[in-house]
Queue: 4 jobs
Job 1
Amino acid sequence: MNESERHVWLADLTGDLLLEGTKTRSASRIAQDAAGMGGDVSVNTGEDVTAIGGEVLSEFAPKMVALVADVARNPVFPGSELPRLKANLARRLSLAKSQPGQMATEAFRAALYPGHAYGRLFPKPESLQALALEDAKATQAAIRSAFAGWRKATGPAPAPATASRNRALVVVDRPNASQSTIQLGLPVVDPTGPDYVPLLVMNSLLGGSFGSRITSNIREQKGYTYSPFSIVSARHKSAIWVQSADVTTNVTGASLKEVFGEIERLRAEPPPAAELEGIQNYLAGTFVLQNSSRAGIANQLQFLELHGLPDSYLTGFVARVSAVTPEEITRIAKAYVKPEEMTLVVVGDRKVIDEQLKPYQPHAAP
């Protein structure tokens, strides 16, 4: 969350370098030692957290802890591997920048988090190539400090993120595209707020499940899209609600009309109790499934740690989901899903969609 504009993906490069060897193990030795315990070692870098770990047979847990500690505390960062790793990242960047969904997410996040690391999804190619071993070693020093003696260390303060609430329309031209990729959304309450769980229920009913209203409308009834979805995406002390869809180019405007129509319908009238109950059962079931694996449990604990939540967030989650009423759904929709504060990004054939998007200019009401 603290990467500067010059250092976008530095954490990714550092994570890759961590697995290239330690003072006592080569990269192949790390892989072989983990395989001998029935598993592997991985480094996963995210916007808020970098996770170093893996899964092995339970009897090898102490040895795995020692291996993870060696990777985290004693990397050698071989300069000879830097060109190869940067080439791998460059290929990943080129692929991502060719995909309309990624293009839409990049523009959406840049509009919502201007000037913050959360708004910088991809590096510039020249910035990626300019990353040096010294940059990664500076990150390495922070990792060593944090793991020194396995005691909790104080790291740099997270850069505060304030998401934009200004109505905005961003169009990314993709000439002759047969589909438009749409993302629209706005900042909402983060996981520390009392409305967060009701917000998750509202999201699942509106667009965040296969049985949601937006999915039923523009997929099942209208046939405008195959896989629309909405999510509540949480970061450190920040969260956003996002509705996404890939729609046929000539129904871009019509699709937006239906999406905003479903938002307004939910803001105006509580859903039937039976509809809400189905969504609550869905959320309770997916929550149980998420916690049915070791990785799922680890992810949940990481979520608690990141947001400073008590254990009761997990132990009481299903009960809080079940306690949400139809009236509360409408209250949440009115409070947080405000069309006049939304950022709308459309990636598509501009010469076809510009006219369709006129009703969604910032000066117009959807």
Job 2
Amino acid sequence: MTRWVGGNRQIRLPRTAGYLHLGTEDNNRWGEPRGGVRFFSYPRGRRDVGIALLEAGEDWMCEHGYTRAVCFPQPWKLSHYAFPHAYVSDGLDHIQALLRVHGYEKSGGEVFLDWFDMDPPSPPPVDELDVLVEIQETPGTDSRPDLTIQARHRGRQVGGTCILIGAGHYHSDAADMAFCDLLDVTVDFQGKRLSLHLLLRGLLEARDRGCQHSAISTAYDNDRAFLFYSNHGYRVVDWTYEFTKTLV
């Protein structure tokens, strides 16, 4: 890359060929400190660049006493990359492929589903469940509030909860999308269509407040949740995975 300075002088600046951002984590489910990759990027077709970056990162982690490496962990990856629940996106397939060839294995994952131009049907009735469904608004990122839809049973906060957050919390260009941050129903009320009632009720309320689209995610191996979402309006847009490797 050439940059002109003044009339006839020029300075040649190095071109960035790739990027690897490292971090460390002391508290995790393995019970041992981990070093890891917060973000990793190299041009498609430049496998040599990717290998050089990854090996340099592993050398640094080994020199600092870390025996396990993790890539794109949820709590400490770069916040601008994706929603907090995401790992390495399928859109970065060349990154995933290089990690796997280099000895990394899947250690977690999250699947993302979107419902563009959502048109939710009426929620199924839940009168026989003896629950009272309440809606609470909290301030969002713009004029549209975040929503909590909760089912109370005999005056207690038991039954189920659906929380819809404006995706603008994560990315400004996703302000028209309602992200389902929580959909949970207690064991006694599962299998009685309460989850579907809360979700559809929340989506209708969000649409009435100006949200055109919705998104949701679940663990890549949560088959029941995946089946539920994909049968009620949502379609897969991305599979994301965490990768780990034992270094020594």
Job 3
Amino acid sequence: MAIIDTKIMDLRSEIVGVDQLVPLLDGSQDTYVNLDNAASTPPFKIVQEKVDEVFKWYSSVHRGAGFKSLLSTQLFEEAREIVLDFVGADEDHDVIIFSRNTSEALNLLAKRFPFQPGDMVLTTGMEHHSNDLPWRARAEVLHAGILPDGSLDMQDFQDKLEKNAKNIRLVAVTGASNVSGYMPPIYDIAEMAHKHGAVVSVDCAQLLPHRKVDMLPPDSPRHLDFIQFAAHKVYAPLGSGGLVGPRDFFNRGEPDYRGGGTVEIVTLDEVMWTSSPEKDEAGSPNVIGAVALAASLKFLSQVGMDTIAAHEAELTSYTLEKLTSMSGIKVFGSTDPSRAQDRVGAIPFHVEGVQHGLVAAILGFEGGIGVRDGCFCAHPYILRLLNISDVEYAQFHERVKHRNRADLPGLIRMSFGCYSNFADVDRLVNMLECIISGNFNGHYEVHKPSGSYFPNGYDPTSVRKHFSI
């Protein structure tokens, strides 16, 4: 095991709640181990501090004449500058439209994109639903295939792109899979798409917290035309996200949401829309969320994304060595520890003979470890990884129609944050060994409508005694 960078060691102490004790099934308490960072990350202390400070100055932005309004407006616009700089955007060419999350940003782009009858979107079979379903509502969608190891079939991608080049207007691809951690070659994909006259949208929800994202200059053939991301995945969970793209694109057409702040002037007979990004930010914006996002990105810049990536690769390699050596554990996606630098730290696996929901429940109730189980909002990808047949799928489909999600296919996913460490992995491995050997204490029942497992007699409302509004 290599020596952890001192910046990473210090970083763990900068996380809110990193040493929080949680109750276990046997009545004891232990420090919570969060290995569900792909879903959402805890906040940095600097984010908490900045938010507490800005609350004192918070007021409405844009058009307010009072001092607090003027300051809040400046903070909101400064946040735009910080975000654009962090992703390598050209401020003269690109704008950021603040959203609630990645899903909203993708839906906004899908609704604003000027699709015409016959237009196509090329995406992949590994996408999060948020980078698939919005396109289906607006155009014909083609899905490039997935190889058995969970990686993108680049030959199939290229074949579909070339065969349908006259109709494909947009290529939409993830920057990093939220299931397997696989990172498609987004710059190669951008170059291929531009060569055939399409533009590129990259879902950076999982990439931004783990790697340096650079949109590259607008005149580069490898330029990323649009990107989306969410603050709650980069240590600023205050309801903010972003869509970055060309200013001229958003200045064209009418906004999807209409209301305050989107216009220059309105009469009973005419509307003159304002320019982007305000044009697509109807109503009072989430100033606090924008400040939180900017504060987090500034902090990540100081730590260095290369430092974070190196630590994560070391941690992922260590984990893959541990999991692949365990009898009864099957890891999906890339399992090669020497290639850990080519992926982000999301690792899906299966415990032989134990339903994924039960594994997650035991880890949580008896180990104080948070993971995610199921299909991770990427059902087609999971079905491909698990080789679920059409007949099996039809059976699962019928059960879900009757509100029975018990024993549906899925995996367990552990995912790292920049603050995760080797002790977290060791805690997980020790608990998995207990599960494999049957050495756990609880008796669990499945709640069929949700598919979740709970200890017999467990009262879900009991968590409120630890914190309540």
Job 4
Amino acid sequence: MKKVLILTTVNSTINGFLIPHIQDLKKRGFYIECAANINSEIDERLIKENIVVNNLSFSRNPLSYHNIKAFIDLVNLQKKNNYDIIFTHTPVASMYARLLKLRFKNIKITYMAHGFHFYKGAPIINWLIYYPIEKICSYLTDILIAINTEDYDLAKRKMKAKKVYYIPGVGFDVNKFSNTKVDRIKKRKELGLNEESIMILSVGELNANKNHEVIIRAISNINRDDIHYFVAGEGKLKEYLYKLSDELGIKNRVHLLGFRNDINELYKISDIFCFPSKREGLSVSLMESMASGLPIICSDIRGNNDLINNNINGFLCNKNSIDEFKYSIQKMIINKDLNKKFIKNNQKDILEFDIENVMKKMNEIYVDWM
């Protein structure tokens, strides 16, 4: 039985994205453990599967001294348990995972890049810091997995991993979102919204990268009082966004919902999904909204343009253009036939990213582990 360590910087990454992979690997006969900075509750599914989660003091800040201690603990963990494979995720943990190769020559390192920090249009500082690190570490990488086409192309050209694969995302359960049933009128009433109002939804942390401000400004420039903007997510910009909404005269139409455990229902009662991020790898929430049958307006960035073809299944906008988002929202409201086209194409296109399809593609990688 091959022993696999699933490694991430923080365990919320495991909870959010990797449980299906862990369950699949266990069914295939691998012995699985996890390791990360335990910054949130361990998922009940891991407990049910009797998966050991080792606590390492990694920090998302690559300059934090905590990472040195975490690396020492990782070395000791490898000495103790002698893992055959490390399946690593997130930049900080993955850098240190590959340094293990310098000492433990026979260990196989598989690195899934959820989105390189260097990309077309990225700040120069990202290229100066993260690109050299990834380039050097790629020499110590047996398998590198990219989950969007821009990263895959760059990895094939510039990185030195023994093998490079493209996998369409980490996978998610399309049926969970496409088959969700909800009483639209009742659910909207819970949110203080009537049936005639236009509900625009975004999902994501309230931070600068998620760029919710551009949607708030776009809505403020549309002369309609029936447009309401809902954002599911927490973050440090909450007060700033409320203040901005107040200054623009639309505070009563901007609703910051915080953390929600009913996202699948929110998708089903919304009219438009807006996703204006400045940087993404391949957004799960964008995929979920497609599966839920929503027309999409999103920023034209890496990852998003793997999912959305402009005027085919949604609108792609310049991430900084208030006017482009404004005009796209107006088109979406007015043109019902276009909406139907977008929804139909989304529900067809998203099947490529379903967890079952992703697992089939991952099988080729698992064969390499044997």
